[in-house]
Design brief:
Rossmann fold; OB fold (Dihydrolipoamide Acetyltransferase, E2P); five-stranded parallel sheet
Length: 238
């Protein structure tokens, strides 16, 4: 299990890495002392789990998570109990209060090991039928939305905004997990942030730079790369 540790205290970070070394199923693939230095290292090492301090000099853990399109599973390590409720807005496995004991760390690692089977079952779910309706619970509101009426899915931090008819709602999922369930030939991932319904596309136009603009039937315009524009044209051509 690939783990990345972020903590602005050198001693706390070194102590946690040492404690993690007692668990052979854990591979520490990197560490950092600040969200700014952590971000590129996390993107490069692609850890499965973040052990993440909350309060750091000039920033906090939530700043870092807001900049990650896809979130690894998270174990928060902090001296501050008051962030516990907010922490569970993310894929939080455990919340460890400092000082962390070996016994408490072992419990968190056990929880990490208990989750993958459930995720595998979720990932194996069959793609939706194009005539499906999907249930979206967005805060106090609930929607039953015809898949064909959805124009676009947009990644928004740790949620996905679903744009349909003249409304929008939010799913607490990643864009990758949404993409896995969508029927082939009906939707296309046109960027890291957007999946569009091919039937909602009105036009594709070249910009002054190296990219393109896709215009949807509600007037929304999405920037996409030249590569994705070529892929989109292939999907829309005879």
């Amino acid at each position: 299990m690939k783990v990345f540790v972020v903590d602005d205290s050198r001693l706390a970070r070194a102590g946690l890495v040492r404690m993690l070394g007692a668990h052979p199923e854990i591979e520490v693939v990197g560490e950092a002392d600040h969200p700014d230095t952590a971000l590129p290292l996390i993107l490069a090492s692609e850890p499965e789990v973040l052990f993440l301090d909350i309060q750091m000099a000039g920033a906090d853990a939530f700043d870092l998570l807001a900049r990650l399109e896809e979130h690894p599973r998270i174990v928060f390590t902090t001296a501050h109990a008051e962030y516990a409720v907010r922490s569970f807005d993310f894929d939080t496995v455990d919340y460890l209060l400092k000082p962390i004991s070996q016994e408490r760390l072992a419990q968190a690692i056990h929880k990490l090991g208990a989750r993958p089977a459930a995720r595998t079952l979720e990932a194996a779910r069959a793609p939706l039928d194009p005539k499906s309706r999907i249930f979206i619970k967005d805060g106090e509101r609930c929607h039953m939305v015809a898949l064909a009426s959805i124009r676009c899915f947009e990644s928004c931090k740790n949620h996905v905004q679903v744009q349909f008819d003249n409304q929008h709602a939010y799913l607490k999922k990643s864009l990758n997990s949404v993409e896995e369930r969508l029927p082939a030939g009906m939707f296309l991932r046109v960027s890291r942030q957007h999946i569009v319904n091919l039937d909602a596309i009105v036009s594709i136009s070249e910009t002054l730079g190296a990219g393109y603009l896709v215009t949807l039937d509600n007037g929304a315009r999405l920037e996409i790369s030249r590569r994705n524009a070529a892929l989109l044209k292939d999907n829309l051509s005879l």
